[in-house]
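Exercise 3.2. Students should predict the tertiary structure of the chain below and write it as structure tokens, then compare their answer with the key that follows.

Predict this chain's 3D structure.
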Amino acid sequence: MRCPHCGNEIPGKECPECGASIPEESRFCMACGARLEKEAETTGTEEDGFDLENRILCPDGTCTGIIVDGRCTECGKPYPESEPQKT
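Answer key:
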């Protein structure tokens, strides 16, 4: 398979669904759209301990972080439930 822009050879493989030539590390076929990695559909990953299904997103509407140990991993804002109650 060749890059349409620079002409360099791209390591490729054949799609098991339609037989089209696709890049080696593709997760979907560019011709038919078939999903190529069945093992990626599991919930959570044991390797890094990160559970995608149960993550808590940052409450700031513009931040891309997640809540870990009561704080956002990107902006550092505390999660509302983890802030100390003022009396």
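Discussion points: The chain has no helices and four strands. The chain has two domains: 1-41, 43-87.
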